[in-house]
Amino acid sequence: MKVYLYDTTLRDGAQAEGINYTVSDKLKIARKLIAFGIDYLEGGWPGANPKDLEFFQEAKKLDFNKTKLAAFGSTRHPRLKVKDDPNLLNLIKSEAPVVTVFGKSWDLHVESALATTLENNLLMVYETVAFLKEVGREVVFDAEHFFDGFKNNPEYALKVIEQAARAGADFIVLCDTNGGSLPKEIRAGVEAALKIHPRIGIHAHNDSELAVANSLIAVETGATMVQGTINGYGERCGNANLCSVIPNLILKMGVEVNCQDNLKNLTRLSRYVSEIANLHPNPYQPYTGQSAFTHKGGVHASALLKDKGTYEHIPPELVGNHRKVSISDQAGVSNLLFNSENLGLSEEEVKTYGKELVAAIKAMEHQGYQFEGAEASLELLVRKVTGKLSEPFKIDNSKLIIEIKEDGRVLSEAVVKVRVGDTTIHTASDGNGPVNALDNALRKALLEIYPNLSELKLTDYKVRVLNEKAGTEAVVRVLIESSAGEKSINTVGVSTNIIEASLKALTDSLIYFLINNNEGTVS
Ligand SMILES: CC(=O)SCCNC(=O)CCNC(=O)[C@H](O)C(C)(C)COP(=O)(O)OP(=O)(O)OC[C@H]1O[C@@H](n2cnc3c(N)ncnc32)[C@H](O)[C@@H]1OP(=O)(O)O
Ligand SMILES: CC(=O)C(=O)O
């Protein structure tokens, strides 16, 4: 069975709170979706806003390859003739080869939201679809609130889609607009609709977290179009997430879809769309999330070393994702073995030092350290425990002076005494805060001996209070990200004193950089 994928990232996705694409954003996403081989690409509602009108103008320059561009809008206004309805005229003017119109199929909506008669709504559906067919468009009829309508007044809901079918709709898409239906209700609705039209689609919202399940059961029942969005973006809780729907259809249900050869590009597509939407990618998103194939528990890592299938439902490469085994207080020696190459450990060293290392990690995480996301500090700990840490400098002494002026200005100055081999360097520096002053003074001292340290830049500084109840005596965790060229260095420090925690994270980043970039010169 073949199923067509209809993407509405640029229309329903743009209805998500927090998303506001520019025309250029929409064109960028469109290009990626076309390259991915999506069957239908809904570009927006021309006429609803100038941006969408412009998008359809600009989209004329795109090479759509096999993807069909769809323009979205509603059935005619209850009191207008189709040929006078600006909404419908804009849909035609967009020149999109596919027009998708939504029409009411829940009697409650007809009478309350549309404020018209049930009879007039049937006419609106018939006339709209027929009008668009007459001008040669492929027409998708989105039966809005179909499942709620089918529950409340099944006879009327079916009459609505009968009108669309009679008028020549190419696809009738049943919408779970409020996202409140259960899979068994979807099945019943699709079964009934298939008696009216052979080409039924599903558009499921995620308010009950069932959008993907509801889309799959619709396909199992005979639906041949699935509407959804990349990353599930959409009105309220979003739409069926195509990043889950697509691999489930291909890998779990053996359904044929046109983009199947591009499945390995799915993770990249998902991250690209979140980047353009200016939203953090959800790390826990199934299939494409950063944690979707990250294993933390020691028991899991141990089994994975023996057989990858023990804790993975699919090989991550199939969707372009990758496997990771993290190291934390949930780890055992197996987690270290898995990462031995990255940690610079031989199998022999893991056998010798594994238990000691795991115990050190667990003890430090108990104090508040977190090594997931602080890989450089972890590497230094590994070097220390295995006797392979040659520290490039030692801080003999450091002093911080914080002066609060009469006018309220706060001045910070740091003085440090650093030893590199037999040389002692004494420096002072001010800064726009105590941590910055310390950083400046330390670098000033070390730059004399390690000039390439100038490549290392501090790019992120995060503080997290670990036991909020202790107020100003609380333990804090400082995470620092520094970068040297393309590579980022992540370190951590923990203390009840924020300066001490910062200094620990800061020195870890300097030590890590120096030992990885000055082999042979480090004392
Ligand atoms: C289920 C869905 O997600 S459908 C897509 C929803 N998306 C959007 O609403 C985003 C884009 N929408 C918009 O920009 C605006 O709502 C517009 C331009 C479409 C309309 O704006 P306005 O004319 O100011 O109307 P407003 O938004 O206040 O109300 C919607 C109108 O559409 C009517 N309407 C709703 N559904 C339908 C339908 N299927 N067929 C015809 N008219 C409809 C409503 O009855 C209401 O008409 P009224 O103003 O005569 O009462
Ligand atoms: C058409 C649509 O977006 C809906 O019914 O949810």
Automatic annotation (TrEMBL):
Pathway: Amino-acid biosynthesis; L-isoleucine biosynthesis; 2-oxobutanoate from pyruvate: step 1/3. It comes from the Bacteria. One of its GO terms (biological process) is L-leucine biosynthetic process. The keyword Amino-acid biosynthesis applies. One of its GO terms (molecular function) is 2-isopropylmalate synthase activity. Keywords: Amino-acid biosynthesis, Branched-chain amino acid biosynthesis, Isoleucine biosynthesis, Transferase. Its EC number is 2.3.3.21. Coiled coil: none annotated. SUPFAM superfamilies: 2-isopropylmalate synthase LeuA, allosteric (dimerisation) domain, Aldolase. It holds the Pfam family HMGL-like. InterPro entries: 2-isopropylmalate_synth_dimer, AIPM/Hcit_synth_CS, Aldolase_TIM, Citramal_synthase, LeuA/HCS_post-cat, LeuA_allosteric_dom_sf, PYR_CT. Residues 3-267 form the Pyruvate carboxyltransferase domain. Gene3D superfamilies: 1.10.238.260, 3.30.160.270, Aldolase class I. It catalyses: pyruvate + acetyl-CoA + H2O = (3R)-citramalate + CoA + H(+). The keyword Thylakoid does not apply. Belongs to the alpha-IPM synthase/homocitrate synthase family. This is Citramalate synthase. It comes from Carboxydothermus hydrogenoformans (strain ATCC BAA-161 / DSM 6008 / Z-2901).
